Amino acid sequence: MSRKHFLGTILFLLTAWVVQAQETERQYLSGTGLGNTVTWQFRVSEGHNSGRWSKIEVPSQWELQGFGEYTYGRWYKKAGVKNPSMEEGTYKRSFRVPRNWQGQNVRLWFGGVMTDTEVFVNGQSAGPVHQGGFYRFSYDVTDLLKFGSNNQIEVRVKKHSDNKSINAAERKADWWLFGGIYRPVWLEAKPATHIERLAVDARVDGELKVEVHLQGTTGEESLSMEVAPISAKDAEHRPVKVTKDSVQLLTAHFDGISPWTPESPVLYRLTVSLLGKEGNVIHSMDTRIGFRTIDFRPRDGLYLNGTKLVMKGINRHTFHPDGGRTTNKELSIQDVKLIKEMNMNAVRSHYPPDEHFLDACDSLGLLYIDELAGWQDAYDTPTGTRLVREMLTRDVNHPCIVLWSNGNEGGWNTAIDSLFRTYDPQKRHVIHPWADFDELDTHHYPAYLTGVARFTNGYKVFMPAEFMHGQYDQGHGAGLEDFWARYTAHPLFAGGFMWAYSDEAVRRSDRGGALDSEDYNAPDGILGPYREKEGSYYSVREVWSPIYVEPLMITPSFRGEFRVSNRFLFTNLDKCSMRWRVLHCASPLQGETVGSPVSVADGGAQAWRQVVDSGMVQLPSLVPGETGFARITAPKLFEGDILELEAYGVDGESICTRTFPIHYAKDYLQGELEANAHSSASQTSVTGNCRVEETDTLITLHSPAVTVSFRKSDATITSVIRNADSRVIPLKDGPVAVGMKMILSNLSARTENGDAVLCARYRGAADSIVWRLTPAGLLSMDAVLLNRASGGGGFDDAFTDTEVLNLGLTFSYPESECSGMRWMGRGPYRVWKNRIPGANYGIWQKDYNNTITGESTDRLVYPEFKGYHANFYWATLQSPTVPFTVYAASDGIFLRVFTPEEPHGRQDGINTMPDFPAGDISFLLDIPGIRCFKPISQHGPQSQPGIIRIKKGDEGLRLNLMFDFR
């Protein structure tokens, strides 16, 4: 080797050593999360695969790896169960430490271990047992390591803590109790003189204060810092002389910064460098920051950058069926994106989440309430003191965090409230969720009329930390429209947080991989365990859309102008965009459905549509809170059937889609019949007229295509036969009245202009039903309901307001004959009276399924097939043998298709859904709302039963249908 080459090599090595000395180095002893693990040796004391050395993946929860026993936190409420599973696990592995780490400070870090953790390195204790399962902790192992050679680590973990307050706060809780090293394990090497950590206060006016915590300094060092956009090269340098104190304060002011908000999450890179006497960099540390100011103003509100916040939030646990609380960065990003897709802007949890979730909230834009664990019981003061420090020293610099939370529902220790301010230079407000504490009322699950002195006529800032409980299919979107309109009308409302984000069903290693949500305890999500979207997902997305289109009716007078409101907090509407489309939806009367199928996210449904015309909406310039007029120019509007408006945010991502019918049901059907009559695809002319046949018990209407028989006793259908192949279409035993009395008083039949006509007259709430069968085989039903005061024949008292849950007519049809449904109306998800937003007009297709919402099963298919469907225009009940189609000639009819099965694990066998009507296929003018934690009586007006009052002279309601059995 030449001398020049030798000197170059030495220079390179010295340069590499200097760079290495400047930066913190990390070496993982485990994987980084779910899907990225490292194998350790493992032995568990009790339960499955206990008493022998085996292998385990780290990080993980040991139950999901086949060890120990599963326990849900409500074990203490179960009869005969005194304690949860209490196994202990021992982990071992060998590892090498780089030789060039010698002389540096090396710490061993654990991202999270459940629950008591004792660590040995090369047979020597690394330090005191760590207690608390949701917190990052570390040990200085510099003097225990063998540099450049093999080392041994042993970790002893007790699932159940020796500290009673730990168990009270973390284990007697409404969640799965897991054991093990579930977050990453790593070594960090820093120079002996180094920066330990940073605590930042970066304010919206550009003021920056940085607490720099140092170790090993002599007083001859200095500090400098740089602030730059993530991708920028330029930076500010402001050296400050270091004193012998271990904490130094750096201050600076930066002009022209862009503030951080959840709608524009601008981040900067802060780098703090520790400089030697000669100006050389000894050590540097960087962190991402956002310039923003959060302040709580009593009897006023919570402000971000001077703007009053209204948080549209969800409670989220760190959870995945395949990993328990072991997740990964990709899952965190996915969850943040799904939350933002619902137009939410805030998240809360019952314990500190993975740090990569907070990173995703910072970069994608979500507000966060960071909570010290304590589910209805608190840590003792020494334990709480330590855990507050661990939580805040990890999380303090995240701009997404706007509030700290000390426990939940009584799980707070007031003696440690002041510690949050000790470790947080921003002095963010501390809450006690469900309590009225320190001028912020976080009352859980308020009723619609919550008061007195609490909200209705109270004077505290109001922010329910939990509301709209979503067990099974209840809650979330059900009733939200009412609650939100009432709450946001109050100037002291600061937002609310739904319970909860996803169903927490774990894939049980001891049950062949079966999913288990512990019956009714854990299926509370707006998403399924694998993030399957339930109906409320789309309902919340519409109700909480920051671009709100006010209710709109398309009539011949419509000239393209409609009202739109800006419900953003920080964004002018002119920074956003909206596209309009005119869609044509052909019915089965015109043969094959016109248009192309469009997949509906991962919902298992498809929409068929043909775009007639499209363009961009002219959005007005509106600041947050303003309402104005938007405009479209759509010359082909009335050539289509649906107007679709899709709004997009500043980032170009879709915010919400709203649809509006262009034609009323009767006009749409008439147009389809006329198009069919003139279409080359129409049926060939039918020869022959209809006839009527009568026996002692039946009246039968005959056409060349279809034969329909009615019972004389009650005018219900007994059989429908398709004449071409003599197949029986098993729609029968109707119409039967739902929600009213309907007693047959007269029945007559005749032929008229080639049609066969059956007229049934009733006493009670129904006046008459006229059936008409055409020679082509189309059977129409014209029902006149609620058109007179019946003197008690239809309801208990026709002049007294009468509550009705379901109102309409129902038929029988066997589920076994149905393979799917294609329909035009609002979809693809089923609805409840108080959860219609989010269901859009279109032509939808979904195959039959028997999904039980929230029930832990591998058969979860969304949208659910069974239930109520809003504003149907037509629907084809698909069958391998006898499909048929029914059309609506009346507006606002709900189509009920079968009865959803109740969850088998529901609490005490109490039904989660209101009663469905008798029969299988129903056509209804009113349907019930579904409860959301509170009884229906404590919900808003849209959740209440319908009120019927009949007076003499009322025109009544028409329920007109047309059946095509051909």
From TrEMBL:
UniProt cofactor(s): Ca(2+)
Ranges of residues in domain Glycoside hydrolase family 2 immunoglobulin-like beta-sandwich: 193-292
Glycosyl hydrolases family 2 sugar binding domain span: 54-191
Gene Ontology biological-process entries: lactose catabolic process
Domain Glycoside hydrolase family 2 catalytic: residue ranges: 302-506
Record's GO cellular component terms: beta-galactosidase complex
Origin: domain of life: Bacteria
GO MF annotation terms: beta-galactosidase activity; carbohydrate binding
Catalytic activity of the protein: Hydrolysis of terminal non-reducing beta-D-galactose residues in beta-D-galactosides
Keyword DNA repair found: no
SUPFAM superfamilies registered for this protein in UniProt: (Trans)glycosidases (SSF51445), beta-Galactosidase/glucuronidase domain (SSF49303), Galactose mutarotase-like (SSF74650), Galactose-binding domain-like (SSF49785)
Subunit text: Monomer.
Protein name from the UniProt record: beta-galactosidase
Organism expressing this protein natively: Bacteroides intestinalis
